[in-house]
């Protein structure tokens, strides 16, 4: 089938928990989208099938992103620093676990510099729309997540959100890890230049929405 008329969508962080789902869901919609994935290592590439449309690049290195972004229409940013638990914690003993970030993988480097590099690469390549998946709590500097390994992860994520909101490129910021919303965000103009927090009722309560146009039309916040 020809790719004429299809939008090319790049999913970064495609080997992550949510990124993997978004990448796979888009691949299932091959009649609508040409899908690319971006991962950091060859090992990560193999974990999601090793297809030719999966690129390996370092988001902290702006130059490495240039060839990946050529011809991309839509960017979905799903990269994130990941805290790791220090070994030795025993819940039976009590206390709180301690966390750390790998060298070079602190939130400032991944969630700020890495996301800024992606936004800049998108602008340079003429990308028409960016979906950024962040985290709830970014407006609260004293949020407990910021204390993990002294990473200030939500503060850096918020900084990237602000950078995107001021970039001029059409965007949607989703502060949740729901893959389906990322896909639906590609379809409706109502969500461009908007930012919102997303939550759900406990499992078994209520009926999941199928009218995303109506849901997105309720969003009024731009940042």
Residue share in β-strands: 15-25%
CATH class: Alpha Beta
Spatial order of the strands in the main sheet?
3-2-1-4-7-8-9
Structural class: alpha/beta
> Taking all residues together, what is the mean pLDDT?
87
List the helices and strands in order.
EHEHEHEEEHEHEHEH
CATH architecture: 3-Layer(aba) Sandwich
> What is the number of independent domains?
1
Distance between the termini: 39 Å
Largest sheet: 7 strands, parallel
Tell me, what's the shape? globular
Radius of gyration: 18 Å
The portion of residues assigned to helices is: 25-40%
* CATH-level-4 superfamily name: NAD(P)-binding Rossmann-like Domain
Count of alpha/pi helices: 7
Q: Give the strand tally.
A: 9
Which stretches are low in confidence, meaning pLDDT under 50 for 5 or more residues running?
none
CATH topology: Rossmann fold
GO molecular function: oxidoreductase activity
Pfam families: NAD_binding_10
InterPro entries: NAD(P)-bd_dom, NAD(P)-bd_dom_sf, SARED1-like
Protein name: NAD(P)-binding domain-containing protein
């Amino acid at each position: 089938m020809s790719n004429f008329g299809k939008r090319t969508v790049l999913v970064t962080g495609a080997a992550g928990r949510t990124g993997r789902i978004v990448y796979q869901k888009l691949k299932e919609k091959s009649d609508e989208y040409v899908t690319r994935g971006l991962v950091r290592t060859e090992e990560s590439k193999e974990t999601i099938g090793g297809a030719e449309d999966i690129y390996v690049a370092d988001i902290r290195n702006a130059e490495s992103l240039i060839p990946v972004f050529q011809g991309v229409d839509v960017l979905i940013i799903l990269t994130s620093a990941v805290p790791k638990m220090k070994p030795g914690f025993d819940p039976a003993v009590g206390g709180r676990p301690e966390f750390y970030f790998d060298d070079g993988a602190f939130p400032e480097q991944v969630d700020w510099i890495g996301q800024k590099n992606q936004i800049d690469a998108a602008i340079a390549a003429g990308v028409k729309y960016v979906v950024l998946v962040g985290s709830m709590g970014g407006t609260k500097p004293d949020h407990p997540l910021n204390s993990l390994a002294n990473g200030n992860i939500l503060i850096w994520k918020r900084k990237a959100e602000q950078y995107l909101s001021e970039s001029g490129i059409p965007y949607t910021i989703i502060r949740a890890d729901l893959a389906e919303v990322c896909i639906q965000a590609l379809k409706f103009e109502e969500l461009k230049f908007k930012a919102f927090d997303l939550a759900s009722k406990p499992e078994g309560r209520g009926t999941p929405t199928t009218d995303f146009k109506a849901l997105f039309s309720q969003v009024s916040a731009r940042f």
